[in-house]
Amino acid sequence: MRHLPLLDNQHWQFKLRDPALALTDDFSSGEGWLAASVPGTIHQDLLATEQIPDPFFGLNEAQVQWVGERDWLYRCEFVLPPDFKNEETIALCSAGLDTFATVWLNGKQVLVSDNMFVSHRVPVSALLRPGRNNLQILFESALRRGKEREAQYGQLPLWNGDSSRLYVRKAQYHYGWDWGPTLLTAGIWRPLWLEAYSVRIADVHCPAEVAPDLASAHLPVSITLDGSAHTHLSAHIALYAPSSEAVTQVTLPVTGSATIEHVLTIAAPLLWWPHGYGEQALYRLVITLQHDGEILDSREQRIGLRRLQLVQQPLADGSGTTFLFEINNTPIFCGGANWIPADLFVPRISHNRYRAWLQMAADANMVMLRVWGGGIYEEDIFYDLCDELGLLVWQDFMFACGLYPAHKEFRESVRSEAEDAVRRLRHHPCIALWSGNNEDYVVASSKGVYDATFNGDFTQTAFPARAIYEQILPQVCATLDPTRTYWPGSPYSGGANGNTNDPHVGDQHVWDVWHGNMAPYQNYPQLAGTFVSEFGMESFSELATIVSFTEPDERYPQSRTLDLHNKADGGSERLASYLVRNIRVPEHLDEYVYATQFIQAEAMTSAFRGWRRRWRGQGYQERYTAGALVWQLNDCWPVTSWAIIDSQLHPKPAYYAIRRELAPFAAGIARLSDERVAIWAVNSLETALEADLEINIWSLMGELVASERVQVVLAPNQSSELREIEDHLSEKHIVAVRLVKDGTVIARAALWPEPFKYLTLPDPAITVEHLEHNAIRVQVKRPAKGVWLSAGDGVSWSDNMLDVFPDDPQVVVATKLAHDAPVQVRWLKG
Fold it and tell me: What SUPFAM superfamilies does the database record attribute to this sequence (predicted)?
């Protein structure tokens, strides 16, 4: 097997297609060609050659819309290595072309593609010549081609973006979303290469299963070959433990069949666990194809051995059924986030940047990420890192917020796309679920075109894509990845009662807060579902991020630039409404940033704290909420959005709020009535924990009104109701609780009187003291709400956005904080 990457080293060039010229003349023209980057996008190439302004800066988005309306040409010359001609087959291979692409090799058309998610392998031996060869690619405007299809088949309903996107198998967020700009890319967005071989390993599948008692694992290995048959051909299968020691290996003769199958069985397997529940043990499966001792091809996969189940059983109170992920016989509360592509221009996301995003998710005690259906099937490095970090992945197929078509050609393209995605990703232990789409059933219900009882020809209904979600995709998953559950959409509840977003069955998107009737975020605990796969609250990016994309005279809360960089429908007004209801609205930008981020953090505390409380009891019957995935972890450009980490990797206060609420031990407190307060705690460990519960009631002026300390037991892997106390002074007092184990505080929570805007909050007299090993101690004389620490870019904090009380100093580790460097402190003022 020989490879020739057709990447930057092949001196790629690009140019704007001149419609006045014949295509062959345009390709051969010497005018207008500029250096291109492969893999890449047209916008990256135009930026690198200074043909367009940065579309992320200021109001520039509007100035680059012409890019997506035009056609583009790419070309390169490459030299065929002499030894390639010794092989029987030479294939041109593409991992992704964006999107309407036609490819010529030495003047002959070899490939036409209209789906950016489909890979291609085209035999080209007869077209190649010794020495120099020419490769040419035409990328046609996805906007124009989509509108042509829409004109042919008819306009379909959707939310977000141009309606023609529904006919184009392209990342849907490129058309603009309520958190992203409209930037219709084109280009060779994933690797392109030549491959020469006589026989190759085309596929390896190992759907490993762990026994119910976890004492053994069954690994059926299936190897598919492509190429001419050979005598004396053998396949060597080796399994290596996480320690790199060989567990078992075998050499099998190839008897002429294109498929080789063998079953490996191992005892006492080292198990792969989600983050926080155990180690992420990863085995290596290595397949080597040999001919008379010569290695012709090899393939390596990492495999995590874990027992995975999606449990849907009746709840004890009869309200519905669980939607619970169980790993290695352990029910897992799936706290986490939704993931969108981390840039509009995916090829420029470095491996280090992926690692930074995902490490922050793991550091926030997250267990699951949902790869949202309007983006992309992510890069291999994304799933590799999730395997390593123990982050479960809820994987959507790439459909979002619309009633997609289902004519024959579209269905065939989708089937190829799904087969590609499942084959590429199925060996990753991180993947927990395949899901058909994002909110398409909700769109259909809102239009009155979803009938759950209909079981005829879906393509002849007003919701034709049910043929995709309920036939094609489950068929592909059942055939190629039968060990995982397929779920038709998110949210989805089966729709038997006419509600596709039923809080009692399946998964639910909770948008009563922010969208809908803009319910108070304090209502989140009452808006619980069995599994909340979307919810969120907007906030501004960090001030440093805002400075990076604005002119100085645009740096005020309602500037034209900041309004443009808030894509939510009525976003600025909705954000202002939540501020007005809860806190005193500031005037200056730095204070406004803090205010919006404060509200987001409070909202996330309310949601995660209230829903994790519903993770109760042993077994399944009282797991009333089994997961909560915030919308969203990340951004794809600098924007006011629901992200808890902004586009420049600055964690917002909400990030720290979620980190505390998803910690192995978390305390909770809520008002039951004007006179009663409930206190609880959550323990995610598999063993019970004895601790001391401290309850202090403080006046706003810093007077300790009452204090109590009791011993409590936190039951394993569930929440425990600890105390109910009387509180007759709620308008002027704060109830603060701590869980203490062996003299160490392991969890804190506080209940403040609300709304905050009516409180007169005295100066808390905050002091910050530098300690050894980059630690600082924060202490106060009077209660302080929302203490936000900052010390410039590059400093990361073990905790932040703190509620601090007298006699309870908090120590925070500030990584990369220089000794005695100044620390800026902000808090909620009244």
Answer: (Trans)glycosidases, beta-Galactosidase/glucuronidase domain, Galactose-binding domain-like
**Structure tokens given for 570:** 């009525």
Dihedral (Cα; 478, 481, 482, 485), 10-degree rounding = -90
Q: Which of 61, 150, 378, 439 is catalytic?
A: 439
Query: 374 is written with which tokens?
Result: 């309007």
Task: Report the C-alpha gap between 278 and 275 in whole angstroms.
Answer: 7
pLDDT in tens, 734-767: 999 999 999 999 999 999 999 999 999 999 999 9
Angle CA 481–417–440, to nearest 5:
90
Q: Are residues 688 and 811 in the same domain?
A: no
In the structure, what pLDDT confidence band is assigned to residue 229 with cuts at 50, 70 and 90?
A: low
Q: Can you list the alpha helix ranges (DSSP code H) found in 642-757?
A: 653-661
Q: Cβ distance 737 to 667 under 8 Å?
A: yes
Where does 364-439 have alpha helices with state H?
A: 380-389, 408-425
Angle between the N-to-C axes of helices 351-363 and 380-389, in degrees from 0 to 180, rounded to the nearest 10: 30
Q: Quote the Cα angle for 514-684-528, to 5°.
A: 25
**Digit-coded pLDDT (tens) for 101-126:** 999 999 999 999 999 999 999 999 99
pTM value? 0.97
The answer to whether 295 and 319 have CB atoms below 8 angstroms apart is: no
Q: How far apart are CA 227 and CA 413, in angstroms?
A: 25
Q: Which residues are bridge partners to 321 per DSSP? A: 314
* Cβ contacts of 724 within 8 Å, gap of 6 or more: 672, 676, 677, 678, 679
Domain that holds residue 480: 397-506
What is d(CA 501, CA 504) in angstroms, rounded to the nearest whole number? 9
What gap in Å lies between CA 382 and CA 421, rounded to an integer?
Answer: 14
| Shared-domain flag, residues 653 and 670 | no
Query: Of 60, 58, 33, 55, whose CA–CA distance to 44 is shortest?
Result: 55
- Rounded Cα gap, residues 704 and 734, in angstroms: 10
Q: Which of 386, 365, 224 is nearest to 660 (CA)?
A: 365
pLDDT on residue 730 = 65
439 is catalytic: yes
pLDDT tens figures, 650-677 = 999 999 999 999 999 999 999 988 889 9
Do the beta carbons of residue 58 and residue 4 sit within 8 Å? Answer: no
Do residues 829 and 787 make contact, with C-beta atoms less than 8 angstroms apart?
no
What pLDDT shows up at residue 644? 98
Taking residue 89's Cβ as centre, other Cβ atoms within 10 Å add up to: 17
* Alpha carbons 470 and 484: distance in angstroms, whole number: 16
C-alpha to C-alpha distance for 541 and 42, rounded to whole angstroms: 27
Query: What CATH number is given to the structural domain containing 24?
Result: 2.60.120.260
Helix (H) or strand (E) holding 216: strand 216-227
* Helical spans, DSSP H, in 536-673: 543-549, 560-564, 571-582, 589-612, 653-661
Name the residue among 371, 390, 391, 378 with its Cα closest to residue 351. Answer: 378
Which residues have C-beta within 8 Å of that of residue 591, sequence separation ≥ 6? none
Q: What share of the chain is helix, strand, coil (3-state, %, to 5)?
A: 25, 35, 40
Q: Kindly state whether residues 161 and 272 are assigned to the same domain.
A: no
102 and 144 belong to one structural domain? yes
The alpha helices in 722-801, defined as continuous H runs, are none
Both 134 and 238 in one domain: the answer is no
Task: Extract the tokens encoding 586.
Answer: 């500031």
Round to whole Å and give the CA distance between 527 and 189.
41
